[in-house]
Design brief:
By secondary structure, the protein is α+β, with helices and mostly antiparallel strands. The chain is built from 14 helices and 10 strands. It has a 4-stranded antiparallel β-sheet with strand order 2-4-8-5, sandwiched between helices. A two-stranded antiparallel sheet has the order 1-3. The protein has a two-stranded antiparallel ribbon with strand order 6-7. The chain is globular, with a radius of gyration of 19 Å.
Amino acid sequence: MPMRIMHKLGPARIWDLEDQLADRPDAVQASAESPERFEIVAEAMRRGHRPPASARAMPHLVASLLGIRRSLRSVDKNPTQPRDEIPEAERLELEAFARSVGVDDIGYARLAPKLIFQHKAVLHENAIVLTMEMDKGRIDTSPSEASYVEVHATYHHLGRAANQIAGWLRGRGYSAQAGHPLNGLALYPPLAQQAGLGWRGLHGLLITPRFGPRVRLAAVFTSIGNLPFSQANDHAWIEGYCSLCKQCLRACPPGAILERPMAHENGLVTCTDSERCFPYFVEQYGCSICIRACPFHKGDYARLKKHFSKA
């Protein structure tokens, strides 16, 4: 990325905006149990890793950085006395609008403070959780420039959709903050699992019924307190399937996926060794081999479930 763009849109400028959000007295703060966010760009620069150059990915990366900045700056546009209940008919309009801007699946969950990264904050605990599919053919080429571009294109388009949804809500009197899919302020996979959208795989990614792990995640945090928050999740069987399958573990070139995920006292789970994953991830087009190798990326969810039930 050219230095002038890094100076204008890079991590330091975004961190300043995140700090301003965390300083707000009405923000939902991280807890003592919260994990630290792994700062990919800053860490790559510190270690001297050079991601592969990709002129095709650059416009999407710049658009995502602009989208992150917009999501943080636009919280000041929220109404001073926002609405906190949404009629069902209007919620259905919201879901239709979300799909019209490219969102594939929508769920609802209350954000636990332990899912917010240390020293970060969000505006509301009520979360509208979003998924967007990545193109299967391009992910099948991973690690490659084509898969790298597809990942960043999805970050760009899902980030834009999250900002559009937040704007739609503000226009109707609700308070909203778009949580961008790139460099988010909270852990999205467990939040999406809580929203009933899928289940965490052995690789640590959310596995969804329609697209397996071939999705990116985002959220919109809102003042709406009567959303139909998920009370159950029918996808827990995936965990048992993954414990037998382990194709992602065998396919991972640096051996970064843990055979037994590490459960922490706060209820969160670590699935990968970042020290093994990170160098390969940065230098090999963001990798995505674990997505490519996953049977849920390749196969039919119902068929896999039937096969697992018989086994």
